[in-house]
Amino acid sequence: MTTAVRPPVGELLRGWRQRRRLSQLDLASDAEVSARHLSFLETGRARPSREMLLRLAERLEVPLRERNELLLSAGFAPAYGRRGLGDPDMAAVTRALDLVLTAHEPFPALVVDRSWELVMANRGVDLFLEGLPAHLLEPPVNVLRLSLSPEGLAPRVLNLPQWRAHVLHRLAREADLTGDPALAALHRELTALPGGTDRSTPDGIAVPLRLRAGDDVLCFLSTVTTFGTAVDLTAAELSVEAFLPADAATARWLAARSAGGEPGPVARTAG
């Protein structure tokens, strides 16, 4: 069995400081340590304590998963556990997620992990999944791949270049903030898909998702909810993506669909 070789903790610290575009003096001042001591930590001339590592990681806004990596590289035990959603200790988390998803119905809402893989969804999400090929819906379902794939939602997204630019910018930012190579690889994969990008400033207050539904056009704005005080990796890396109607016609259409009635008229697609 091959044991993974971890980079020196000082190298990791320097990498996170540079990723956050901070000088040693900036970080030292924020963490209330001397710049000389921080320099010694980064070069390996001094060994950080567990408390010092956690303080620096907090100031650098290092994700919890990577904080564990810092601790392990310094010879300490991880500080943050990881429980599955089926674990009894996670019952409060799953109840909260169920509550949020149900409260958003009939509007689509889903839960994803850090890799953008689908964890949970409410009934409104069926609107997005109808008619998609089975191989795209086999777990684990990556919702960004699903939304931008030519076999997925992309042909139904009427403002695809604008929506792609928004999705790719957000994914690139998350890959940079977390340093996660899997997110960077996903960004490269999705960037290579067709569809173009439109980086012009959109009208209105946010980038909408304009989706074809039969002969109708639905318009959504998306919101993101996270657990702000999570100290478990699973909970910290979950987010709820909710799609809210951007106009009254879309809201009425979704309400009628949920009630089993005939959706009322909204904007029509051309052709």
From TrEMBL:
What InterPro entries does its record include? Cro/C1-type_HTH, Lambda_DNA-bd_dom_sf, MLTR_LBD
The record places domain HTH cro/C1-type at: 13-67
The species this protein was found in = Geodermatophilus nigrescens
Q: From which domain of life does this come?
A: Bacteria
Q: Which CDD domains match?
A: HTH_XRE (cd00093)
Instruction: Read off the PROSITE patterns from this record.
Output: HTH_CROC1
Query: Record's PANTHER family?
Result: BLL4672 PROTEIN-RELATED, BLL5781 PROTEIN
UniProt-recorded name of the protein: Transcriptional regulator, XRE family
**Sorted alphabetically, which Pfam families does this protein's record hold?**
HTH_31 (PF13560), MLTR_LBD (PF17765)
- For this protein, what is any one GO molecular function term? DNA binding
SUPFAM superfamilies registered for this protein in UniProt = lambda repressor-like DNA-binding domains (SSF47413)
